Structures are given as structure tokens and as C-alpha cells.
Amino acid sequence: MKDLQKLEQLARSPTGDGLARLRSLLGATQAHITEHFRFEEQDGYMDAVRKREPRLERTVQQLAEEHRHLGQALDTLIRKAGAASDVDSALQEGIQAWIERVRRHEIRENDLVQAAFNMDINAED
Ligand SMILES: [Fe+2]
Questions:
Q1: How many whole angstroms from 37 Cα to the centroid of ligand 1?
Q2: N vs C: which end of the chain shows fewer Cβ within 10 Å?
Q3: HEC string for the chain
Q4: What is the pLDDT along the chain (125 residues), one digit of tens a residue?
Q5: What spacing in Å lies between the alpha carbon of 46 and ligand 1's midpoint?
Q6: Ligand 1 centre distance from Cα of residue 53 (Å)
Q7: Residue 125, SS3?
Q8: CA of 10 to the centre of ligand 1 (A)
């Protein structure tokens, strides 16, 4: 996602107005990712995977739970950025770690969709 790339760049090398830009990017990221997670849960891959492969339900549940955790972790980062007086290394590292968690989450989702899809193809052979 574009937000994550921008956020990552800014967290790595904050500019003069870095904190203000960081706060605004964190806010934009929160709006987009909340919408993205809701889409995945309500209209996206989760239902499709459940229908195709009910045995993957547990993994789907874990990924939905991760949406909760990632959302809470982002809330915490937004609070920290709101209270900060500059972009310090703790904030930079917190943002970087969160971005990496989101990326790992996305990889697991892609793997899950692929697993469900491949199983479906095999079942049709
Ligand atoms: Fe997700």
C-alpha cells in the first residue's frame, strides 16, 4: 500500500516538518487500513475462503484477530506521535515495526488465499 511506503520513508528520514507530516500520514493510514480490513472481513477474501475450505476457518479467524491487534497498535502509535515533540528513534522504530507486522500479515493472507484456491483446483481434478 502506498500509505505504508510513504510512512516508511518519512519514519526513516524525517524532514523539518516531519512530525506534522507523520501525524497526518498516520491518520490517513488509519482511515485507509480500517476500511481495508473491513472490506476483507465483510466482502473480501475471508468469506470466499470459508466457503471454499471450511477447514481454514481457524486461520481466517487468526487473521481477523490480527486486524484487531494491528488497529490497536496503530492507535497507540498515533497517541505517541500526538504526544511527541519530535520524531525520535522510539517513534521511528515503532512505526517501522508496525509496517513490518502489516506486511507479514498481508503475506499470510496471500498464502491463505492461494492455499484455498489451489486446494479447490486439486479437488476438481
Ligand atoms: Fe488483512
A1: 5
A2: C
A3: CHHHHHHHHHHHCCCCCHHHHHHHHHHHHHHHHHHHHHHHHHCCHHHHHHHHCHHHHHHHHHHHHHHHHHHHHHHHHHHHHHHCCCCCHHHHHHHHHHHHHHHHHHHHHHHHHHHHHHHHHHHHC
A4: 788 999 998 888 877 778 999 999 999 999 999 999 999 998 888 999 998 889 999 999 999 999 999 999 999 999 999 999 989 999 999 999 999 999 999 999 999 999 898 865 555 55
A5: 9
A6: 18
A7: coil
A8: 23
For residue 59, the CA-to-ligand 1 centroid distance in Å is: 12
Ligand 1 center from residue 41 Cα (angstroms) = 8
Cell 506486511, located at residue: 103
Predicted structure pTM score: 0.88
CA of 123 to the centre of ligand 1 (A): 26
